[in-house]
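Each record in this resource describes a single protein on a pair of labelled lines. The shape at a given residue is found from the number at the same position. The record below illustrates this layout:

***
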Amino acid sequence: QVQLVESGGGLAQPGGSLRLSCVASRFTFSSYAMSWARQVPGKGLEWVSRIGSDGSDTYYIDSAKGRFTISRDNAKNTLYLQMNSLKAEDTGVYYCKVFTYWGQGTQVTVSS
């Protein structure tokens, strides 16, 4: 069964940065597009970013454009989300996703 394990969340100050990682296993990681989504308090689940299988195509929710960067290392079966200029509204649980499979999530809290 597909396994996705996120890490890298934590507490950051507004304007700060965090880098999330998602280690994937039990499927051919390099063959599939991957996504990040987040569960935001009071807003439900929202898609954040997507990257093509070879990393050449990337997409972002409008609120993340210019601040977040999605990337992947297919040799390491790892997906990343570099988050800069963090805002309070970025607070939530972040999940990586492939097909209908989700990781367990990693909590991101942006607060002073």
The chain has no helices and eleven strands. The two ends are 40 Å apart (CA to CA). The chain has a mean pLDDT of 96.
